[in-house]
Every structure is written in C-alpha cells, then in structure tokens.
Amino acid sequence: MTKTFPSNFIFGGASAAYQVEGATNEDGKGRVLWDDYLEKQGRFNPNPAADFYHQYEKDLTLAERYGVQAIRVSIAWSRIFPDGDGEIEPRGVAYYHRMFKACLAHHVEPFVTLHHFDTPEKLHEEGDWLSPHMVNAFVEYAKFCFKEFPEITHWITINEPTSMAVQQYTSGTFPPGEHGRFDKTFQAEHNQNVAHARIVNAYKQM
Q1: Is the separation of the CB atoms in 175 and 124 below 8 Å?
Q2: DSSP secondary-structure letter at 87?
Q3: What is the phi/psi pair of residue 178, to 5°?
Q4: pLDDT per residue of the chain (206 residues) written in tens, 0 to 9
Q5: Cα 144 from Cα 33, distance rounded (Å)
Q6: Residue 117, CB half-sphere, CA atoms under 13 Å: how many?
Q7: Phi-psi region at 51: left, alpha or beta (left = phi > 0; alpha = psi -120 to 50)
Q8: Long-range contact list for 89-94, CB < 8 A, 24+ apart?
Q9: Which 3 state secondary structure label does DSSP give 180?
Q10: DSSP string spanning 122-159?
C-alpha cells in the first residue's frame, strides 16, 4: 500500500539564532546568558556557527531548490533589545526584515520563535525566568515583534520551556548551572507559562 502525506503537510527545517547565526558581536547585538558561560568553559565558540547571519541567502536558495516549504527560525532578542528592554538596536531590526523578506522570496514560510534559550545577559543576571522584570520585558518584546513584523503569521513564544527550566535549575546543564533546585525549576516554568498566556492574549487583542 502506498502511503502519502496529506496535501496540507508542510515540509520544513528548524534552527535557532544562537545556534546558527554567528555574528554575536556584530551590529550592536547584546550579550546573552551563554557568552560568559561558554568563554569560561572554553569548549565551544558561537562564532561563526553556520554563519546564517551572513549566509542566509545561500541557505534559503538551497532550501527552495530542495523543496523545503518552511523554516523555523528564532529572533535573537538581544539583537533587537541588547539589554532585553530599553533602547532598540535598529540594525538588528533591519536584519530580520531582510531575512524574512528573503524567506518569502524563496517561498519558504518562516515560523518564528521569540525565545530559544538565549536570554539577554542583563536579564539573566537579574534571575532570568525567575524574575518578574524578565516576564514583563519578554511580553513587551513580543508585542514589539508582532507590530514590527506583520509579514510573520506563525509565532512560537518559548522553545521547550520545561527543558529550559530543568536544565538551568535541576540538571545544571544550562547557565546558571544549578542542581536539584526543584523550587526554582517549578517557579521558572510557572513564569514562562504566565508570559506565554499574556503574549497569546496580547496577540489576539492586536
């Protein structure tokens, strides 16, 4: 028996800004929780990664050629708000406009994640997802993106929220690298759910 995919099935690929963009020190991008952590470990360097920041046109050309219909990308929060909130970095905003335009020109639909394990460093130092300031700043950043990028019709708020909280405060594999702090794990998960709910409501209202 021949099996076929449904006619509305979307063939796509996935990436995350910090994992593929590189260019972590270019065009006013702010630091994130991983920068100091990786520098101290000395095992991994986020530059140039896949150099998607400079090579996205080539990647999207190949995606179109091989029938990729969608790509999940993330916005690096600190490219737009280097400190998480406050002053906007226009060069970061312009980059995402160019990249999203290229996606659509190559018939590759962008599914955009707002937070993929890359909290801006200053907010991380304040407690990351344990901080009410972080929650408020994330909601405002999301609302900015909804207004700024109307060409995007598929949004994802937080990548793997449980994984983020567990690896930060239970297994210690994400910075700040704490172990067995179930209280912090559950609080971080709760705050992510609160942020997600507020963002969904804001999107519907907008």
Answers
A1: yes
A2: S
A3: -90, 155
A4: 888 999 999 999 999 999 999 999 999 999 999 999 999 988 889 999 999 999 999 999 999 999 999 999 999 999 999 999 999 999 999 999 999 999 999 999 999 999 999 999 999 999 999 999 999 999 999 999 999 999 999 999 999 999 999 999 999 999 999 999 999 999 999 999 999 999 999 999 99
A5: 22
A6: 20
A7: left
A8: 89/27, 89/28, 89/29, 89/30, 91/27, 91/28, 92/27, 92/28, 92/29, 93/148
A9: coil
A10: HHHHTTGGG-HHHHHHHHHHHHHHHHH-TT--EEEEES
CB within 8 Å of 52: residues ≥ 6 apart: 15, 20, 21, 22, 59
* Rounded CA separation 148/85 (Å): 15
**What's the token pair of residue 193?**
């759910």
DSSP secondary structure letter of residue 66: T
Q: What is the DSSP string of 12-63?
A: EEE--HHHH---TTSTTPPPBHHHHHHHHH-S---SSTT-HHHHHHHHHHHH
Q: Which two tokens stand for residue 178?
A: 């704490």
Tokens read off for 47? 């530059």
